[in-house]
């Protein structure tokens, strides 16, 4: 069985499981809540913590409507993504806090701009969200960093999973 390196940890090849605490968007745009999740993940014994990095201007338009209206406080998808954004400095604070707590900091990037932001922070590995498995530009940006890519397959069909894995390997990534 082969292995990969994510931050300071070996994954696979008989190494212990890497326990990732998934925050995603659960912070609801609150930097304080995001920091609290880091503390909770460390206290629970996680090895890593994973957020989602959304940049509204790179993912949406000002008037894009919700596909499914789930937010009473946000009029548009842009408004929602914008409320979820953290600045580069705030992401750096979260990454530093994670490191101080002994956690590997990870975040799913949902745009090339998000990959570029996270790469400035020394991001250890990438996760492609299940809805992004056909986002070639996003996968190519991740592959160019030379870091491991984790592919979330969600409700993909077997053929789609095989195609995505082949696409990632064709880009030179593991």
From TrEMBL:
Listed GO biological process terms: carbohydrate biosynthetic process
Q: Which GO terms describe its molecular function?
A: N-acylneuraminate-9-phosphate synthase activity
Q: Where is the PseI/NeuA/B-like domain?
A: 38-168
This protein's name: PseI/NeuA/B-like domain-containing protein
- Please give the organism: marine metagenome
